[in-house]
Amino acid sequence: MEEIECHPLLQITPETVKKVRQLCDIDDVKRINESLDIVEEWIKKQDHLAEGGSYLCRSLLERVYLLSKGSVEETKRRVERLLTSRGMMPELVMNRTVEEFEAQWEVVNYVPLPKLHPVDQSRVMVTQFLTEKLDPFSILTYFRYCFLIGEYRINYDYTTSERFVIDLTNIHLGLLSKLNPIVIKKAEVLCTEGIGTKIKGIHILNAPPFIDKLVFLLKQALREKVANRVHVHNSYEDLHKHIPRDMLPKDYGGDEQSVSKLCDQWKEQLRTEEAKKKIKSLEKMVSDESKRQTSKFNEEYMGMPGSFRKLTVD
């Protein structure tokens, strides 16, 4: 019988696995394993990917394969993008320790919800601002933590898409000065192009009076397809039309544990030796550009940060 490695804070069942595979048009375990064998052998033969690729565990590789709709060639392309883009954006994903986020935790919560969305099997991630005193908040540190959680989680999770709930309680105009559009754009590129995650929705709650300016800034930094999935909800009941109550925290009229309790569980988990070891191994998931035979990919993506539009907010 097939065994899927799971995590105590993520609810994954055999039925979940079946549904996700069906959504990706894949439901043949033998085909999955044979395809992953081919990809692993291919990685070993790529001089610039061999070392970094050796830290891609089988479960993570399977998630990439699912994102690729069962295409071996597309899986190879996504692996290439993952390892290369991580090396190009070290400020987002390198040299991280759990301890560096202690001050950030006093300002903002960020946590995956235990259950997957019943319709599209997406994982819902919640951001919750805890105080009006935003001085310790850094958008770069925030994204570093988001990617730490995401890259650690993807080793155990079984989904190809995510939704983001952003609670803007306690937010004031001072936040706008902390939102660097270039950092936001880089984060989106790494999330959708590097890791390959599909963003199903961005749901904003408890919007402040200046929400139009905030949404404008956010949308300018996102691709049009993702920007069109930004929703501002005027009530929790409106949110429930998109995300079922039974999977939402009590904070938002749901049945799940509070955001703070879920966050405490994740902090405790990330402080374990197992998690620290896994996080350390993530550092090595990068391509070795000195061994790449062609610079075509590098030229294409290194130009991206320099091509971003200059953004202004009135």
Automatic annotation (TrEMBL):
Annotated transmembrane regions:
none
- Gene3D superfamilies the UniProt entry points to: Alpha-tocopherol transfer, CRAL-TRIO lipid binding domain
| Pfam families reported in the protein's UniProt record | CRAL_TRIO
Q: Name one GO cellular component term.
A: membrane
Q: Name one GO molecular function term.
A: phosphatidylinositol bisphosphate binding
Question: Which SUPFAM superfamilies would you find in this protein's record?
Answer: CRAL/TRIO domain
CDD domains, sorted = SEC14
- According to the entry, every stretch annotated as the CRAL-TRIO domain falls at 142-260
Name of the protein described by the UniProt record:
CRAL-TRIO domain-containing protein
The organism encoding this protein is Helicoverpa armigera (Cotton bollworm)
